[in-house]
Structures are given as C-alpha cells and as structure tokens.
C-alpha cells in the first residue's frame, strides 16, 4: 500500500468494492467507509454442494461469469454509474488464488480504465470493518477482534485503523472449517456451519460430552480433537444427529466466547469486534454478549459472511488516510496480520 499525505476530501467518497476470494462474487458501493449504498452477493453454493466443498477451478470460472453482471447490479442498486465513483477496491487476499485474481483484476481494470485510485484490501481486515458499516457510533480502540471464518480463527488486538497485533489463533482447523467438517460427518448438506446450527436447534444436552481444548496460558485454539471426538460419537451410533450438532456447537462456542472474554478483560479492551462467517452463529453471538466484560459488536448476519461492502468499508478509511495501492501489486494467499 502506498501511503500518501493525509488529504481532506470536501465531498463524500464513493468506493466501488469487489470481492471474490472464495465462492461468492460480490460488489458494493460504499460511502465514506460506513454507508453501503448497495451490496450484491452472488453465491456459488449450489454449484459446489454436490462436491461437499468449494472446488477452486469451478469457483474461478463462475467468478468470471458473474463478476461483470454483479458490478453492474451493484452500481444500479446504488443508483449511480462509474462517473460517481471516486476509488475502486478489490480483495487482494487471503483466499483461493484463482478466485482472488478475477475480482482483483476486475477492480484494477476499472481503476486503470477510468483513471481512478485503486486499493487492494485484506479480506480479513474487511470482515473486521463490517463492524463500521451502518449508523451509530464507530467501534472504539483498543478493540479486541475475534475473526472466525472458514479459513481463519484469530484473536487480534486493533489499536487503531490498520494497526493489528495477533495475540492468539487456531493451531489446526479454523472454527468454520470445523463446523463444515462436522456437518459432513453428520451427513448434513454443504456448507456445514449454518446446517449444524440448524440441526442443533432440534437437539440438546445428553450424556455426550465433547472436549474443549483450553490450551492454558495461551489465547490459542484447537478444534481438530473436537472434530475427531465428534466422529467417534457419530460412529458409536447411540446419539441423534441433532444432539451431536448441539454438543459440538456448545463446545466451539464455549471456548471462543470464554477465551475472547478473558482476553478482553486482561487487555482492558474498549470494544470486542466479532468478524467472519461464524459470527453469524446465533449461539456464539448470544454467549459473547452474555460473557464479555466490555461491549460486543457483531455485524448483522448478511455482513458476517463474505460480501463486498466490508471491503469498501476498509477502502473508505484507507482512502481518507491517503493510502493508494500500485496496480502492479499481486494477490496473496496467506495472511500476516503484521503486514496488513
Ligand atoms: O467469512 P466466510 O463467509 O468465508 C471465509 O472467509 O472463509 O466464512 C465462511 C464460514 C464457513 O465455514 C461457514 O460454514 C461458516 O462460516 N458459517 C457458520 C454460520 N454461517 C456461516 N458457522 C456456524 N454457524 C453459522 N450460522
Ligand atoms: Zn470471509
């Protein structure tokens, strides 16, 4: 990212943002990093469902088909044209390389063709900034961010805009990945996360007790042992699918909410910000609200899962700080919080 002089813009800044890091093609128009004038998400879930997971080759081809119509729809829904756009943003990483390339290059091409500033945005920072979208007071610093997506589970301290320090995270599976794998073990459709949550509504406490990996003395997580224990419970055949789903969800939520709340207290965080697809989980939302010693902010569910409005939110703030990206900057697939 190029850091420029802090400049004041007299008018509202409209960012066109494009996101294609995994299996949703998305575009949005966001004003001043806070107001989404539109947010269009074209999901590929039906295409991947029969394979039980995202097939990268199919995902990138579908992004190619969808990206232009989705951008057109986002502009139309916002009631504007490219003439009204002040900057273009695209998700740079992390994600699937073939998927990222489509949206990122579309954003670059529009910026180049229209001679507009371009910003390459970190997808996980986008998830965090979904908490800036909407009205009301902005989140306060220092903020403790719990990022729980399909590929990442991180506890990150945010001291200011763009300033991150990773204090803990998963040592094996991400929380969303564990939900998806357990969904598959239970014979539920893809993606497993929302399906496990749905199945759990019909379940409850039984004699089944799945392990919680507390990993004392750290703010790290581990979900692979829990996943294996769920597999054994399925094989045993004595428990209902709904009851296994219930106990699994309680185990994940217990550790995520417990560790986040404790760290928020130790740090004296002003706010807890929850981000990523798993933040859509109702039980996680309830438990964090109940246990946290400080206010908890969680975006509405449609802004927890992948979307472009969150990318436009980051871009709005970075643009206002004078940051711009080079068109030569490439995508990346592995995240480093120290380099966001
Ligand atoms: O952030 P996201 O949309 O995409 C990534 O960046 O990975 O997160 C997707 C993940 C998937 O693993 C999905 O199963 C999970 O979020 N997820 C949920 C729920 N909704 C989505 N997990 C648990 N409960 C939910 N309601
Ligand atoms: Zn995501």
What report would you give on this structure?
The chain is an alpha/beta fold. About 40% of the residues lie in helices and about 20% in strands. The protein has eleven helices and twelve strands. The strands form three sheets. A five-stranded mixed sheet has the order 4-3-2-5-6, with helices on both faces. A five-stranded mixed sheet has the order 9-8-7-10-11, sandwiched between helices. The chain is globular, with a radius of gyration of 20 Å. 5'-O-[(R)-(carboxyoxy)(hydroxy)phosphoryl]adenosine binds near residues 180, 191, 192, 194 and 280.
Spell the H/E element sequence: EEEEHHEHEHEEEHHHHEHEHHE
Mean pLDDT: 96
Uncertain segments: none
How far is the first residue's CA from the last residue's CA?
9 Å
Count of β-strands: 12
Report the biggest beta sheet as strand number plus sense, adding barrel if it closes.
Answer: 5 strands, mixed
Q: Given the C-alpha coordinates, what overall shape results?
A: globular
Question: Which hetero ligands occur in this complex?
Answer: 5'-O-[(R)-(carboxyoxy)(hydroxy)phosphoryl]adenosine, zinc ion
Give the strand order, joined by hyphens, for the main sheet.
Answer: 4-3-2-5-6
The total of helices stands at 11
* Helicity range: 40-55%
User: What's the Cα radius of gyration?
Assistant: 20 Å
Strand content of the residues, in percent?
15-25%
What structural class do helix, strand and pairing data support? alpha/beta
């Amino acid at each position: 990212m190029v850091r420029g002089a802090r400049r004041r813009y007299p008018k509202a800044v409209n960012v066109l943002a494009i996101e294609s890091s995994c299996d949703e093609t998305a575009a949005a128009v966001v004003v001043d990093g806070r107001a989404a004038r539109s947010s269009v998400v074209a999901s590929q879930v039906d295409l991947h469902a029969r394979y039980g997971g995202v097939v990268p080759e199919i995902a990138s081809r579908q992004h190619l088909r969808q990206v232009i119509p989705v951008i057109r729809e986002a502009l139309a829904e916002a009631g504007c044209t490219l003439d009204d756009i002040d900057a273009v943003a695209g998700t740079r990483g992390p994600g699937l390389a073939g998927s990222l390339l489509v949206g990122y290059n579309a954003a670059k091409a529009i910026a180049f063709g229209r001679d507009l500033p371009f910003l390459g945005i970190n997808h996980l920072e986008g998830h965090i900034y979904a908490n800036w979208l909407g009205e009301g007071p902005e989140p306060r610093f220092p903020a403790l961010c719990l990022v729980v997506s399909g590929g990442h589970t991180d506890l990150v301290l945010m001291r200011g805009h763009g300033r991150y320090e990773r204090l803990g995270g998963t040592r094996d599976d991400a929380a969303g990945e564990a939900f998806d794998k357990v969904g598959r073990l239970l014979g539920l459709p893809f993606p497993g996360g929302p399906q496990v949550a749905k199945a759990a509504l019909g379940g409850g406490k039984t004699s089944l007790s799945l392990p919680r990996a507390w990993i004392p003395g750290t703010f790290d997580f581990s979900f692979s042992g829990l996943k294996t224990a769920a597999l054994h419970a399925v094989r045993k055949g004595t428990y209902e699918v709904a009851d296994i789903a219930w106990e699994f969800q309680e185990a994940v939520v217990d550790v995520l909410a417990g560790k986040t709340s404790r760290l928020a207290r130790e740090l004296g965080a002003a706010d807890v910000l929850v981000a990523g697809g798993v933040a859509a989980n109702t039980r996680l939302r309830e438990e964090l609200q109940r246990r946290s010693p400080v206010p908890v902010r969680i975006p509405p569910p449609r802004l927890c899962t992948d979307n472009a409005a969150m990318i436009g939110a980051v871009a709005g703030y970075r643009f206002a700080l004078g940051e711009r990206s080079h068109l030569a900057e490439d995508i990346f697939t592995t995240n480093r919080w120290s380099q966001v």
